[in-house]
Amino acid sequence: QVQLQESGPGLVKPSQTLSLTCTVSGGSITTTYYNWSWIRQPPGKGLEWMGTFAYEGINYYSPSLKRRTSISTDTGKNQFTLQLSSVTPEDTAVYYCAGGLNFAYWGQGTQVTVSS
User: Using one digit for the tens of pLDDT, what is the confidence trace for 46-79?
Assistant: First the structure.
């Protein structure tokens, strides 16, 4: 059973870079056809896809976040990481990592608040 767990700071100051890590267990992030994504949900709003590291080694990003978003992987640690730069209070959200085939596996989510 593949399991995902997000980790990172719960509070980030405006203009800083948010960095979150997703640790994958019970499976490998190098599994063929498995993609790995970050999704967020701001308070009172729906889910927003942020970006995906695809199994071909290509990153896809939401056009609205592309300038500020980077996703990378660490195959040795079986982890993938989100970096979101120049954060504002509008980036306050619950952040989820998801992966596998068609977003089959999800982490429980982690609350990130952007505030001074």
Answer: 999 999 999 988 999 999 999 999 999 999 999 9
Which pair of structure tokens corresponds to residue 83? 């970096």
Query: Which residue type, as a one-letter code, is found at position 94?
Result: V
Place of tokens 């990130």: 112
The answer for residues whose C-beta is within 8 angstroms of residue 114's C-beta and 6 or more apart is 11, 12, 13, 14, 18, 87, 88, 89, 90, 91, 92
Which tokens sit at 73? 């992987």
What are the E-state strand segments in 26-104? 35-41, 48-53, 59-61, 69-74, 79-84, 93-100
Cβ contacts of 77 within 8 Å, gap of 6 or more = 23
Residue 91, classed as helix, strand or coil, is helix
Contact 12, 112 (CB under 8 A): yes
